[in-house]
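TL;DR need structure tokens for one chain.
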Amino acid sequence: MEPSDKPHGARSAASAESRRFARLGEVNRGGIGRIEAAHDPVLGRQIAIKVLRPEFLSDTRVLRHFVDEAQITGQLEHPNVVPVYDFGEEHGEPFIAMKLIRGTSLFDLLATRAGATHGQDPLRELVQVLLKICDAVAFAHSRGVVHGDLKLNNVMVGDYGQVYLMDWGCATLRSPAGEARAAVYPEESGEHPAQVRVLPGAPLESQEVHGTLEYMAPEQLQGRFEAVDERTDVFGLGGMLYEILTGAPPNDRRRLTGPGITRQALAVPTQSDLWAQLPPELCRVAVKALSPAPAERHQSVSEFRADLQQFLDGGGWFETRVFPAGSNIVTEGEAGDAAYIIASGLCEVWKNVQGQRTVLRRLRVGDVFGETAVLTSGARTATVTALEEVTVKVITADSLNLELDRNRWLAAFVRSMAALFREVDERASGPPTIG
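>> reply
TL;DR here they are.
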């Protein structure tokens, strides 16, 4: 790097100070850089040093991105963003000094947790990690930063549960109005002080978008830089969730060609090589976040996070279905094996009495119907029709058992009550009301 090309902040004082770091060897390697462990004898601690690989030292574009990464990450002070200690240059080699994370990547953690049948529910554990990444990304968005390269390999989980979102080298800085922008000089900016700033000497390449093909949102793959925003990271988070569920990233590299690239929406996965069963709600959340059109995704990381939290809170094994107005959700005389809880909309319960439709009652949000079908066999004794578009949670015996397995005390109580109900039902002379 020529002296005139040195990034802002890479001063001789920083270079002199950096000599106190004793390099201990490479611990990881990425597309343009490598991570070395190092020892700081002054503070008596080990740190990580990120440096560019030799073949990129003369590439001005890569150098600028490296500076961007250092400055952006250094300003994102959040528990789930790896702390940056210093940025400088030594022997013509720019470096970023940061916290040394001892642990494993989320990608490797998935490999060890998938299919586990003992200890903490492994899928819940992985979703809890993803919640912390949501917190880091939401914080970055509040500072005008879009990560742009969210994937399992860019998440590190420490030995004691620490979670860090790594590698901000593909980050995009956006103005409060949402436009992508180049460098902002502090003295010329009228923005809120909380906005991350790129300092003089390190302009963003405003017409370039970088990332990993298998995880890129359609707007990235198509080079539509102006369309990259917070929903691009929602796609990335959805891709991480999709890989946790299925073991595969959202984009098939073999199909990343041609004008129709990624325009087809993904089908909701129903089976996986990683898990014996997939929670329907978690699959729905992933596919919504991966919608090709940004307007059809969650519109913020907070919305995506709320859906993940709802899975952890309970009900993730209950499928969501939508019925249009006028459709029958259950029909009198048909066999049934599921119950329903109304999440939105209005229903009417009716029976056919001597050829006439006889209305029994109306059901609203929170009402349950068809519950006896989960506990006993038999035909439906009434019809339930949607008076308007209705969204329901579907409860089957299998999904109920999966939910109950999360709380053994509640499971014991409900299963005891169910056994008692079956005993009474067998003795009863008449059918249940809406079973």
